[in-house]
Amino acid sequence: MVLNLTPSYTLTDSDADKKAAGYADLFFNRSFLDPLVKHEFPKALCEILAAHDCLPTTSKDDAALILSADIDFLGVNYYVPRRVKARESEYDLDYFTPEYYFENAVNPQGRFNPYRDNNEILPQAIYDIAANIRDNYGNIKWYLAEIGIAMDRQSEGEPGADGVIDDTFRIQLMEEHLVQLHRAIADGANCFGVHQWTFIDNWSWINAFKRRYGFWRLDLETGERQIKRNALWFAELATSNGFYQR
Q: Number of structural domains, the chain?
């Protein structure tokens, strides 16, 4: 089983923002993790859905399936954190969404990826995911099934004299994230591997070929493939099971 996890972080240290982050985590992470690992849905989630007349009808067979299902290990996809704050404006939709309880926010002191819609960069989130699984989900076996750093074709540039596209920005961020994963494993996290997204630039339902993640570039006009430095770096990482920090 593979889940896309987005750890929730507060905009400020206020109690209201902490409560908002708790709601976001409940809807976007615990709603999947709890039934998969703990064999039950969070009570708080069920109460909220019932209060908004959104609690689905279930049968005894549904409950039995959740109780009996076991996963061999968990795959985790991670790309970006979720930054939230307590609602400041009135909720004006005529139907219920999780954002009834919080507003998405932007950290004014944050780092951002200019090549991926200015999404926040937060390598610490990898450690926090690992610690959460360790402390709250029985330290089950898991692996980082998908992690990638988006760039666009222009920012990657053209191949150098050696024929390699120099996507050093991607390598630097991957290193920062893997340092946090290594720290988490040293602190007892039961993570056994990493898969970086992805082998070759691919089409996305959301943005077509705008965001590039591949180890190899795909020329859409000719079909030619060109290797990126990240591919060579990851091959060395896999062979040596480590890297020297920059």
A: 2
pLDDT tens digits along 140-172? 999 999 999 999 999 999 999 999 999 999 999
What string of H, E and C letters represents the secondary structure of the chain?
CEEECCCEEECCCCHHHHHHHHHHHHHHHHHHHHHHHHCCCCHHHHHHHHHCCCCCCCCHHHHHHHHHCCCCCEEEECCCCEEEECCCCCCCCCCCCHHHHCEECCCCCCEEECCCCCEEECCHHHHHHHHHHHHHCCCCCEEEEEECCCECHHHHCCCCCCCCECCHHHHHHHHHHHHHHHHHHHCCCCEEEEEECCCECCCECCCECCCECCCEEECCCCCCEEEEHHHHHHHHHHHHCCCCCC
Same domain, 101 and 202: no
128 and 91 in a single domain? The answer is: no
Whether 87 and 146 share a structural domain = no
- Tell me, yes or no, whether 66 and 119 share the same domain: no
pTM greater than the 0.90 cutoff: yes
Which residue segment(s) compose the domain that 134 sits in? 111-246
